[in-house]
Amino acid sequence: MKDAKAKMSQAVDFAREEFAAIRTGRAHPGMFNKITADYYGAQTPLQQLATFQAPEARMMLITPFDKSSVNAIEKAIRESDLGVNPSNDGNSIRVVLPELTEERRKEYVKVAKTKAEEARVSIRGARRTAKEALDKLVKNKEAGEDEIARVEKQLDAVTKEHTEKVDEALKAKEAELLEV
What we know:
The chain is of the alpha+beta class. It is built from four helices and six strands, in the order H-E-E-E-E-H-E-E-H-H.
């Protein structure tokens, strides 16, 4: 039961992280979580290479710790799926986010729904694994059927609770994306 709860919580956390990476009309450092840059031959996450500041709602200022990595970071952002064109002044990189079109917003909502479904599938997988373990206990006569039925009800309640958390996060992200 504890293992199933932990896996379900991880699925909810994963969904929230994925939602944070989906671009809305505002700039935030979470947009750059999945981007890596070639730093001395190794793919390194941008969070380890620079600091992020949002001086304006639709602008991100990225200041690398090592000035020699400016071009690599700029290239990584340009080639990412963010759809932005960064510019650098030799010391820092400016990323200006264009206004999202309605079509692009709807596209991002679809992406968010896909990520939510992946999280739900993961939650159901954790439930299935726990249920199989419970069935094995009954089969080996290590626990009574009444006790297992009670635990299965708890498992269903936990599953429902975590699925609702994913749905709430999706609803919040959808509202954020469709807000003009």
